[in-house]
Amino acid sequence: MNWTDERVERLKRLWAEGLSASQIAAQLGGVSRNAVIGKVHRLCLPGRAKAGGSTAATRAAKRPAAPAPRAPTFASRATTATRTVTRPSGSTMLKEEIEIDSAEEPAFVPSGNVVVPILKRLALTDLTERTCKWPVGDPMKEDFYFCGNESPDASPYCTYHAKMAYQPVSERRRAAR
Hints:
alpha+beta; about 30% helix; elongated; single chain; two-stranded antiparallel ribbon; two-stranded antiparallel sheet; about 180 residues
């Protein structure tokens, strides 16, 4: 089967009307559904129109109404912003305006009871089972060293560095959000 100019024009018209590849193949005759799909892709035809209206109008009608804005849960001030986003829908891209509730993040206030230890600056050869093995700096440089402070039993780090290295599961989950 050859794709004559007349058959290509008919394919374009039927595709624009929203017929499926199988329906177009049946109307053209002597061509398979896959041949129609291949030709549509080679012609770079846009996504088909759905019967009963445009694709965007149909999807907008099916989409439930946006929920009412919620009050912020942790901030004293909140703002609502409108943002235009583009998302794929089949072979077409849809632009939508969405409302985003943004809240002001509370400022980080470090606790006052943290004591930063004075590092003993030990070399690798000076470490023992009871010294902190927290590395400081670049291992490829001359000024690289380890903390060297006393570490409790069964821990490679001093109390200060152990708090940095081992975080409770709940804090890791919160930080990942």
